[in-house]
Task: inverse folding
């Protein structure tokens, strides 16, 4: 990050909109070009702007100097004539950023009101990067018209895999994902490639950490008055103690985001936050309880084997106690889905101290198969553990279609197949309202 970047941020909150303008050093990658026109807005992206889905954050970069600080938006009524300054759920809006010949137009659809039977479809992507495999993953997801928002389980740009953590790779990645994230919110999770620790990096004076620095300050979770930014995760929960862990509600889901690479032991801020957050979940309002983190708690690949064990020991008893439905993670560059097991009630009577079926346990899904830059993970531990229902070394993405308070339909799609083909599929039954064993 350049210490000479002169940046400004302007935020204004409307019923469904918070508008922001950011600047960042100019860079044009021939494979992922900037939009035409001097100082045209780029890397446009939206995300949920508050915990309950009544706001949208629109962010963008003006690469050469601060540009227009305004968003024009209106309800899509066909002729574009109706102003959009009133709260409406389940409504499509058109928005415009930039001025004159550099103005750009996008759209988003607001979520349904929070409620136990509010149907909604999430895409799930992890470890995306910016390779040909990444492009195929994003194109496949982009072609699926069901997706309304993305749950992203960490490892975004892989800028740190390039010499001196090439910061330009954040810009090219921001332009790469714009085709999706400018139109629907992505809910971000930080991965190990967001740690981005480079002691020799020259940072602005207002940067107070050297860990996750580009993720946090590009993401601007604190909405400070001056910041160079490019990727904007959701605004922090009012009761969150740090921007890497937070929760949101959307439709019938309560989504908790955790940080695998921040302290989580007893009495740490993340531990204390989660201890207070889980009892706040109202399953009569948001029956589906979903957790996002980067390093999988269960993993039967040789890659990163048992790296998530410490967090599993700390938090799995809570996941079972509060009947978490699904836990999504990345990190391992492949795909795996578990049965409903836990290590809370393991089998000791026969000497097998291994996970056992637990009807209150979550399904753990590893989906770090977005494309990355390091290749596919293709070595398994053998034999396949009893808790592992399905695993495959292929790139892809997943879809979670929440139907109502009791049922959700899940599919995983390989890159090498056409989008309608599901490599893996499963009906999930809600742990609170319908705690039966899935077929």
Result:
């Amino acid at each position: 990050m350049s210490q000479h970047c002169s940046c400004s941020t302007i935020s204004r909150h409307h019923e469904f909109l918070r508008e922001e303008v950011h600047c960042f050093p100019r860079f044009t990658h021939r494979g992922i070009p900037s939009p035409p026109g001097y100082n045209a807005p780029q890397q446009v992206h939206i995300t949920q702007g508050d915990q309950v889905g009544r706001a949208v954050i629109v962010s963008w970069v003006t690469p050469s100097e601060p540009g227009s600080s305004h968003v024009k938006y209106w309800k899509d009524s066909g002729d574009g004539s109706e102003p959009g300054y009133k709260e409406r759920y389940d409504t499509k809006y058109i928005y415009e950023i930039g001025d004159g010949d550099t103005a750009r137009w996008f759209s988003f659809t607001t979520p349904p009101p929070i409620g136990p039977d509010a149907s909604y479809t999430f895409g799930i992507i992890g470890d995306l990067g910016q390779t040909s495999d990444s492009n195929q993953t994003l194109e496949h997801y982009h072609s699926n018209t069901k997706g309304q928002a993305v749950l992203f389980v960490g490892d975004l740009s892989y800028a740190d895999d390039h010499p001196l953590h090439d910061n330009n790779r954040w810009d090219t990645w921001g332009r790469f994902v714009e085709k999706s994230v400018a139109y629907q919110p992505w809910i971000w999770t930080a991965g190990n490639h967001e740690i981005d620790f480079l002691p020799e990096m020259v940072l602005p004076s207002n940067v107070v950490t050297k860990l996750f620095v580009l993720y946090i300050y590009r993401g601007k979770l604190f909405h400070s008055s001056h910041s160079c930014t490019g990727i904007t995760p959701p605004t922090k929960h009012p009761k969150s103690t740090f921007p890497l862990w937070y929760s949101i509600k959307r439709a019938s889901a309560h989504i908790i985001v955790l940080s695998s690479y921040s302290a989580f032991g007893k009495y740490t801020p993340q531990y204390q936050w989660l201890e207070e957050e889980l009892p706040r979940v109202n399953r009569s309002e948001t029956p589906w309880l979903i957790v996002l983190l980067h390093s999988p708690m269960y993993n039967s690949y040789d890659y990163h084997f048992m790296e998530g064990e410490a967090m599993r020991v700390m938090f799995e008893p809570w996941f079972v106690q509060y009947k978490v439905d699904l836990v999504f993670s990345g990190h391992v560059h492949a795909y795996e889905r578990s049965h409903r097991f836990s290590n809370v009630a393991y089998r000791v009577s026969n000497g097998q101290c291994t996970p056992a079926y637990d009807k209150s346990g979550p399904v753990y899904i590893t989906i770090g198969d977005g494309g990355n830059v390091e290749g596919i993970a293709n070595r398994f531990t053998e034999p396949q553990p009893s808790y592992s229902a399905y695993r495959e070394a292929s790139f892809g993405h997943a879809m979670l279609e929440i139907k109502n308070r009791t049922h959700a339909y899940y599919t995983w799609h390989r890159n090498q197949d056409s989008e309608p083909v599901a490599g893996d599929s499963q009906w999930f039954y809600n742990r609170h309202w319908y705690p039966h064993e899935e077929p």
About this structure: The helical segments are 132-143, 168-176, 178-181, 213-219, 269-277, 309-321.
